[in-house]
Every structure is written in C-alpha cells, then in structure tokens.
Give the backbone structure.
Amino acid sequence: MTVVTMNALDDAQLAARVAQDIPDGSYVNLGIGKPTHVSGYVPDGREVIYHSENGILGVGPTPAPGTEDPELIDASKRYVTAAPGAAYFEHSDSFAMMRGGHIDIAVLGAYQVAENGDLANWATLDETYPPAVGGAMDLVVGVPTIFVMMRHVNRDGSPKLLKRCTYPLTGLGVVSRVYTDLAVLDVTPEGFRLVELTPGNSLDAVQAVTEARILT
Amino acid sequence: MTVVTMNALDDAQLAARVAQDIPDGSYVNLGIGKPTHVSGYVPDGREVIYHSENGILGVGPTPAPGTEDPELIDASKRYVTAAPGAAYFEHSDSFAMMRGGHIDIAVLGAYQVAENGDLANWATLDETYPPAVGGAMDLVVGVPTIFVMMRHVNRDGSPKLLKRCTYPLTGLGVVSRVYTDLAVLDVTPEGFRLVELTPGNSLDAVQAVTEARILT
Amino acid sequence: MDKSVDDLAHAVAPVTDGASVMIGGFGSSGIPFGLIDALLEQGATGLTVISNNAGAGETGIAKLLKAGRVAKVICSYPRTPGSIWFEQRFKAGEVELEVVPQGTLAERIRAAGAGLGGFLTPTGYGTRLAEGKETRVIDGRGYVLEAPLPADFALIRADRGDKWGNLNFHATARNFNPVMAMAATHAIVEVRELSDAPLDPETVVTPGIFVQGVVEYGVRP
Amino acid sequence: MDKSVDDLAHAVAPVTDGASVMIGGFGSSGIPFGLIDALLEQGATGLTVISNNAGAGETGIAKLLKAGRVAKVICSYPRTPGSIWFEQRFKAGEVELEVVPQGTLAERIRAAGAGLGGFLTPTGYGTRLAEGKETRVIDGRGYVLEAPLPADFALIRADRGDKWGNLNFHATARNFNPVMAMAATHAIVEVRELSDAPLDPETVVTPGIFVQGVVEYGVRP
C-alpha cells in the first residue's frame, strides 16, 4: 500500500461534522467512544434529545465538579445531568424505544463497514478476548438512520470500508452514512457513494485506502 | 329431573365462605359479579391485597358518598379507593402480574365447570350476542389457584358442574375449587371431590343436580 | 421541542379515512372524550378502533359507532353495560369485531411499540380464540403465537403533560394509554393540565418520545 | 403485610449453591453492593449470575468472581473497563459466558416475569449471536425467537421502599432492577430508605407484588 499523506479531521472536527447532520428536534443515541463527543457540537438553535440506553431520555451536559450524582450516568458510565424535559425509565422500556423505531438517529463507532451496509463493531476475530455486545445490535435493527463515525483506516493502514465485513456482524445492511476523518460516504443500494471529501483530499487518494469502490 | 328443596347459601354467605379460604398476605383478583363481594368478608386479622386488572394493586373499600374519584375504579367499573400500600400501573404490567404467576388466587364466576377443571365463563352458544372475554383467559393461565364461585345449577335447573363443558372454554384444566350455594368441591385428577356440603344438604341430593360424578 | 397543539381540532386533523385508531381507557376511566368528540367533528370514517371496550351510552366510542364511522372494532370486552350502539351495529353486520383477550391485547400493542415480531402466550391456548393461530407446546405447556398490533393513531388521555410530550396519569386512568402511545405512529394526547415547567423526570410515566401532539383539555370526566 | 427484613445477612440467607441470581445495575449505578457483600459472606457458590456487566475493579460481581463463586455469567457487556476478575476467570476457563444483546437480555427477563413463552426480535438476526436459534422472516424482516430468562433470586437496589415491597429508584439506577424483580422467584431488595409510610401509589415503579424481601441499607454508592 502506498503511503499518502492526507488531510484528516481530528476527533473534535469529526464530531462537529456529524453534528451538522442532526436535525432540530431529533431523538439521538450516541454510542460509546467518539460518538459521545457529538453532543458538544450541536449548532445553535437546534434542540436534540439524547437517549442513553441505561434509562434516560434527555441527557444533559457533564455536571460541574463536585455536583456529580453517582446514580446519574450515561451508557459510557460517565456522570451526566438531566436536561429540561428529561425522563427516567427501566431497561425494557429503554430498549423498546430503540428497537421500536422511536429514536431517529444513532451514531456508532465501527471496526468495519461493508458496501452493503453491514456493520461490525462488537467483536474481533480474537477468540481469547471475551465478546461484549451491549446495546449495539438493538440499536442497528431499530433506529432508522445509523451514522457510523470512525477513522477511515486502521492503525496499520488496513481499510475499514470493505466489500464485505470479515469480523462478526452487528447488523445486516443497517448503516446509512459513514463519517471518517477523510470523507463522508452514503451507503446506497449500489454501494458507497461519496458525499464529500475532507478539504484537500483527492478521491483517488481516499479510494486508495478504501477496499470497496467509492461511487460518485 | 326431580325437584328437591335444598339448603342454599345466599350470595353474602357464599362470599363469606370463599373468604375463609383466602390466607393472610395473599394477592387476590376478584372477578366481575359475585366474586367482588368476597372482599367484604375477610376474617379479622388477615391482610389480603386485591388486584384489579385495570391497573391497581391494593384495592380498598368503596368510597364514602361524595368522595368518589371518577378515575379510580375497579374492573367492574365501580368506584373504589386505594388501600395503604397500593400501587397504580398500566395494562401490560397489570397482565404481567396475572399471566406471570404473581397473583396467588383468582375468584371467578362461571357458566360451566367440568370435572377435568375446564372452565367456561366468557361465551355462550348464542352467536347473535357479541362475545366478550376481558381478562378471564389471562387470569386462568397465570394464577395458580382458581376458585370458581357460582350457583350450583342454572335457573332452569340444568347442571353447571359437568363431565365436559359445552360452552366455549376460557381455559383448560384450570379450576382448583368450586364454591356453590349447595357445596364446595375440589377439582382433582380423578374429578370433583366433595369438600363440604352446605349444612342440611345430602350428597345424594347434590349429586342429583350435578352432571359429573362427585367423589368423596 | 414543543409538541403542544393549540386545540383539539388541530390535534385530530391528521386522522384519515380508513385509519386504525387506538383509543385509551377502561370503563369510564382514562378515555379521551375530548379527542373523540373532535374526531367526530373532523369527519374521518371507515375507522378501525382498537380499545378495551366498545363504548357505552351515548359518549366516547359509542358516539363514533352511532355516527357510522367505525368499520371494525378490536377489543377485549365489547359488552359493557350500556354498549347499545356497538350491539346494534354488530347485529346489523355493520361493524366487524375482533375479540382479543385483554392481556394479549395489551401485550400485542406493547410488542408493536417495542419493535417485536410477536410473542408466545399461554393465554387462550386450546380455546376458540386460538383457532387458526400457530401454537406450540414448550415444557408441557401450550402457547399461542400472537402478532404485534400497531396503529396509525392513538388518542390518549393523561393527567399532566409538558411540551416535550412527557405524561403522567391519575389513578387507574393509566390502563391502556401508555402502551397505545408506544404503538401508534402518531399519538395524540389530551391532558388535564399542560405544565409550563417540565415534569419531574422521576414521575414521568410516558416519556415524550412516544408522543407526537399534546393538547390541554381541562375537563376531568 | 410486612416484607421488611432486619439485615442483609437474613435477606440473602435463602440463596442456595447452584442458584441463578439476577443482579441489578448498569455500570456503577443501581448495583446492590450491600446484598452482594452479604452473599459473599453467606458463602453460596456455583452461581449463575445474570446481570448487564460482569463486575469491575474489586467490588460487586467482581468480588464474587474473585472468590470463585460464579460458575456462569449471562450478560450483555462483560468488558467494562476494569473487569479484570471476569477476564481472568474467563481466560482460565473457570467461568462460562453467555453473551446476550442488551435489549434481548432485558426483554427475556421481562418475558419470564410476564409469563410469556418467548418472543420474536429482529435483534441479532443474521449475526453470530443468533446461531443455533430458531429464526423466521415476517414481511421481509428477519426475527430470532428468544426464550424467557427467569431466575431463582434477584438482588435489587432501590432508593425508597415500604413494607409492602413497593419501590422507587433514583435517576438511572432503575436500569435492570424492575424487570429482574418481576422475573425472579425470590426478589431481595436493598433500599436506601425503608419508609414507615406507604409510598405514593402514583410514584411506585416496582409494585410490591414483585418483591419478597426488603432491607434498609442506607449507603448510597
């Protein structure tokens, strides 16, 4: 693989980019890791209501130091607050929201995304490591719009946008759009279609680090 | 059929008789009609918690005139009160209590009971009349002890304790014990077994108005 | 986020002819009388009504039946004392009836709201209400496979609500209202009081995510 | 009716070797640390633990794992940061693991409490977690048939309770606690405060019918 230097968004820039695509009034679930940062970049004038699988709708900002409530946390186990209009509920209700199609958008991290929309984000091929699925499989079947937010390639340079996933699947044909540090791509019936390149990158350079074909 | 005069309990006496068999600390559902009177006859020193399918556990006595709350009713649509320790909940939770085996005893009316424990209490053979099942089928599958409380015979003298039910079934093999104005009978693997006769009645006389055989 | 609607007429405006409409309530408790009256005024017809009962007297669902707006009723207990309009329409063959055991009705509605494809229940096994349905025996116990029951609209009665659509209820007026809000594409709520302040998140019974419109209708039945 | 128990030791006394034990909590919230410590002291072993996580650090479920009391874990996410005792026992082959998608775990537990024989969920269809399970396609969508998951015991953490066993919770400490109370034959609850007066029936989250024992344990995590 040829090493090409490209313009890559940092995590904050990537979070801000994703936040642009979340409409006013949306119910949104943010996955563990990078996606949790999206809530910090909602454009002015929009109200977005965040769902956390552990039983809160209306997750508010991080509490001021010293005001943390140990029983008020999000799915990443971080201390949070309750926004105005929040509600608490138990787990079967929380997953009814997810599986029942009530949440508009979920933003998830991923190991791999395939051009048919398959997502792999819960297990690797390392069998000695205990698998852990959490709520990812429920989210992807129930939420109509799944945004994936991830680095375009692995640390070793191998591609994460594939023809077919090689890791165990989280869901089949579930991804709507992928936001990477290098580009934004829609999943279409024909495969990945370019939405935009991170300014300064060429399509050829991005294609070179993408296993699947990028349509334009 | 020979007309025999027998000693028959009135509704209040029958309700009091059933109440004797409800242990302290039981969770009990009382069906519409005669069974609703059982709550008035709980022996002193026992606390029985009444469940009503429309979303209350801890149904209390009838409110004093003028204090009725139009949104606090029981399954018979009568005004009730909330006893100390009561809880309100929605319908799927209410039926989880019934179907999930959490209620100890249900007292139901019946058209027919068969010696194999089959119960018919929701529809007759009159097809012009709209059928109405309510919560009876959920109760009989979920509550481990089903008491039936009814007249021993129909108004025309025909028997209600049968070899096999002729009306559409509510549940199969679900009845534990039958309390009638004439006798109390257990449903056993062998059939109806006499528990007691209303004082003054002979077994022969009661058997004469019972289609199924009464074991002793 | 502001889900409040100015009046009952605007709240029911989206209901179309032929729609399936869940209506909360049990007996006289928790019935959205204001929304039903507004729906009658609005004129939608050919409706499938999903409710526990089929109306009584001359109010609520009975009014819709009397006016000939109901093509089908799915309920557990259409024989409430005074359900004369249902009986009349039923005997005349003018309204179709599907009787569902009450717990199965609640669970089918919840299953629709919760995104499930169906469930196995012991309720009704071996009875006429299981005829034609798939059954199976597990560990010696019989079960009936029941399908989810969704609806286009739900008419809901609550006690207090806020502009996010969060609701709580009064006493036994909860009944079918919370599950119906979950299962309908468009849940419309009449509340006794629309609170300016958000409801306490600990006391919310129906989170606003299940509600599409909320209108203040002060009258208590 | 008085379900209050004098102390944690009496509350967990009925737990037997080889029992299945549900343990409420998600992350650090809503975990019954007091009851877990009492169970460790009590000595029951060969347990099947059903919980969302598999413990972290040296507290809660991790303590039971460290002490070798756990034969099997059924959970959705055993890989919490700091879940060193689970990892150690797992890699040594000393503990069996069943991973269940989180929503399926909650729903299987609820199904057990609600007397259902199973349900069809789209979750996990086509994935490794559906291998060996019955599936079907309805209207073009794939579903997995999942079985109810009951337990002999549940260890529950609540905020306030009364002697009838009614409970409410604080913030996100509800999580799995209410469904686990429903699904266990014997649900044991530690409450921050055991109220002398009955809880307000409108604010009860878990009705007392699902609770067999309640013990005051003032400590908040």
Chain B has a mean pLDDT of 95. DSSP finds four helices and 13 strands in chain B. Chain B has one domain: 11-215.
